[in-house]
Amino acid sequence: MRWLHAYFGAVALLVYMGAVCAQSNPTEAGLTTDRAEFTVTTDVVGDRVLQMEMGALEEISAGSRLLHGPCPLVRIGIGNNVEVRVGGDGFLASTGRDSLNAKGMSDLSVGVKWKLANETRFIPAIALNPSISAPAGSRQFTSSGYDPTLRLALAKRLPAGFRASGNLNASSLTDGRRFLQRGMSLCIEHDLPARFVAYGEVYTLSALDRHGAASTMFNTGLFHGLGKRMQLDVEAGHRLSDCGPAWFAGVGFVVRFDGWREH
């Protein structure tokens, strides 16, 4: 289990470095995150900004559980409209009828987000997020293939302080042989007192595997900002279809720092 100790040690070191830089290098830029929702925002982190987003999630279905953690996502700003993204589900542990006590690492995804347009009065903000998942995970959890995804992200402010965002996704996935998975999502957010933000979203996937049916989920949660450089979040969700996890719940945090920016 040395690899597991080394993995969590590296995660802890990154979090510590981020927290130190977040406190010692304050700037005026705001924090924009891509967790905890399924929906990816149109915002990028900004030029020469490093942001780490992590959390833990547990899925519960009839007779089985799957724990994800710490679900790292590292976002690196390259200019004002582009960011590089590296992430995955991290360590996975499943129990249940089909995979008793299976433990291992997830595959690794690498991608970019390119903000194409800012929001105008009638037009939403637009971004593209292509990525590819590489078969770097453990035997129990890897897809054994290089799986590309293309995501179109849209966002628009609504009356009464609400904000809407949505995604249209297409993925070529490996499951014995390739199949096309399509997805879409809609998320609504609203600010609350004391630096809280509430959200609710619905998302659907055309199939979870090559022979599976469509899966639709409802997800809701809260964000809480800790200054301008850190955020905590909680989420919970339930399926609206026959496929997918019956329930899931998670917690997470975000640390942003500008330690390599020029001042």
Instruction: Give the low-confidence spans.
Output: 1-8, 10-29
Instruction: Let me know the average pLDDT.
Output: 86
Number of helices: 1
Biggest β-sheet description: 12 strands, antiparallel, barrel
| Quaternary organization | single chain
The counted number of beta strands is: 15
Q: What is the string of SSEs from the N terminus onward?
A: HEEEEEEEEEEEEEEE
Task: Classify the secondary structure makeup into a structural class.
Answer: mainly beta
Rough shape?
globular
Judging by the overall fold, what is the CATH architecture?
Beta Barrel
Radius of gyration: 18 Å
The tally of domains stands at 1
Distance between the amino and carboxyl termini: 43 Å
What fold name stands as the CATH topology? Porin
Q: Give the strand order, joined by hyphens, for the main sheet.
A: 1-3-4-7-8-9-10-11-12-13-14-15
Classify the helix fraction into a percent range.
Answer: under 10%
Overall CATH class: Mainly Beta
**Looking at this structure, what is the CATH superfamily?**
monomeric porin ompg
Q: How much beta, percentage-wise?
A: over 45%
Task: Note down, in words, how this protein is organized.
With 263 residues, this protein is mostly beta strands. It has one domain (2-257): Porin (Beta Barrel). 9% of the residues lie in helices and 56% in strands. It has one helix at residues 2-24; strands spanning 50-61, 64-70, 73-77, 82-88, 90-96, 102-105, 108-117, 125-134, 147-157, 162-175, 177-192, 196-205, 215-226, 230-239, 247-257. Strands 1-3-4-7-8-9-10-11-12-13-14-15 form a 12-stranded antiparallel barrel. It is globular, with a radius of gyration of 18 Å. The N and C termini lie far apart (43 Å). Mean pLDDT is 86; it is low at 1-8 and 10-29.
